[in-house]
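[retry 2/3] DNA-binding transcriptional regulator, LysR family: previous attempt timed out, resubmitting with same input.
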Amino acid sequence: MDTRFLESLLAVVDHGSIVAAAQAQALTPAAVSQRIQVLERQLGQVLLDRRANASAPSAAARDLLPAMRRIVSLAHDLQRSADADVAQGVFRLGAISTLLTAAVPGVLMDLRRRAPQLELQITPGSSSALYDAVLTEDLHAALIVAPPFPTPFGLQQHALRTEPLRLLVPADHPARTAEAAFADLPLIAYDPTSWGGQIAARYLADRGIVPHVLCALDGLEVISDLVASGIGASLVPDWAGLKGAQALPGGAAYQRRLVLLTRTTPDRSAARRLIVDSLISTQLAD
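[retry 2/3] DNA-binding transcriptional regulator, LysR family: success.
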């Protein structure tokens, strides 16, 4: 079965007539009509209810339309994947919140110039959730905190930057160490269950600091705003856009590593290569 014939039938369904479908496909009405007649013979079903100036899918065609659309979509994906040197089609990229603002805008601008046929679909989320999505191939790649375990076969990390731990206190607070800050301020914790938050929790544990925890959040932007309001202090990585943070004694040894996680399979290799190159060229890498 020729998928181009399915495309012609779908064009008639979508445009409402053979004439309109022919115009959309740059074909003659006779050619579109012939394609549909071939499909009807192959499937043994009448696919169109033909009227004077319009055509509508038959009952049999309506039942088959979802499968037809899937077949056409898969055929397009196969054709795009076969050309490993052209970055086109849809590339599904996940990103943690700080990289949505720090990395994604520059990548989008670069891709618009270098690969106008490539559509980037962005999915926000936590590092662990985005990691799982790349593992299950729901995402092609993700901008995440490096996982705290070895990457399994089939996945690849592209290093972007490292962010040492910083002390974040209200502007009028004199503390310069974590001990001094948490002596009289509660901790607005970078969620210790998150991969980045585990680094801050380890810093406190290594020094035997047990602050009163006001709340735990995974959003660094929100943590920064809460500290600025004066209700607590925090330990956060030196993420792009962070303001007012202080160097933390020993903080350089507690770094959040940001990576682009991809699969090592050749699927959409041109798009993957282009996105890795784009991230490096926009100077996200150390």
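[retry 2/3] DNA-binding transcriptional regulator, LysR family: Residues 59-82 form the longest helix (24 residues).
[retry 2/3] clearing retry counter.
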